[in-house]
Amino acid sequence: MNAVHGEVLMPVVGLGTGGYGSANGSGGEYWGPEQGHNATVAWLNMGGRRIDSSDDYASRDGVGTGWVASGIPRLEVFITSKVDPAGYEQTLSKFTDILKSLQTTYVDLLLIHWPGAQPGKSDKPIPPCKQGKATWTDCRIETWRALETIFKLQQVRAIGVSNYEVNHLLEIFNLNSTLPSVNQVEFHPYWHEDELVDFCQKHNITFNSYSPVGCPDHALTLGPTWNPIPDLRKHPRVVTIAAKHGKTSAQVVLRWHWQQGIVVNPRTRDPTHMMENMSIFDFELDQEDMMTLAYLNHPMSKVCGDPRLIP
Prior knowledge:
This protein is α/β, with parallel strands linked by helices. The protein has helices at 33-45, 60-70, 88-102, 137-152, 166-173, 194-202, 236-245, 249-258, 271-278, 287-294; strands spanning 14-16, 50-52, 78-83, 107-112, 156-162, 182-186, 206-210, 263-265. It has an eight-stranded parallel sheet. The radius of gyration is 19 Å and the shape is globular. The chain starts with 13 loop residues before the first strand and ends in a 17-residue tail after the last helix.
């Protein structure tokens, strides 16, 4: 049975609030408390109802002040947050901080952000549950047990994971316990793990895509030796499909996700783009469109580290 309290409805389109840039303006779009606040208010006031946040995002405090300032009742707002695989007690302590930051008594969806240290990043200390061990298995299991405790206390309506591959999911399956309700993973026409989607959907795990439009500003964070990632929105085949349906390129890509049963977290501070992102339910891509988008894979197109490398 998936870890969900009662009937939890997860809006298809959410607002991503993670950034890749720095406060000094380098490395892509920066999201701090001010940006998170303003985007959250705009998103909620135009009808958006799901917001994705994380303990790792500098925007998290702004999400908390933003939903309060919007005047939208808490019961109408779906808030996701994430924790690192840091162990049982550490997770319980961190969750208390998350509730305070988000100015809420509960979270709608709580995820384990990564199955271990994100490949290519070493800016965080190794938690006690990993020290002296070859794999992150103990940390993952301890942290999942902490999420189950929070779930039983009804301080969260659903629990799940993020960036988990099949081998990571099977560790939870082997506990003979509750299963994740969601797996949030990078997914877009340039990078899509179709077998992982099939596995999750087979086990009734909602597949949630982040960076669904390929994160166009991500190239700014790469060194000069990397092959620049073409802006997916400007790809000639995407532009052609968009013109065919009278839609924007971003709308076409988001619709491609939804027709596969995948919910999305596009990140934007532009109210016009927010409205576009929510307007993907009045047209349908045909089989040729879907196949064309599925074969746009591009070398070095992965935005974040590869979780398949995490033992």
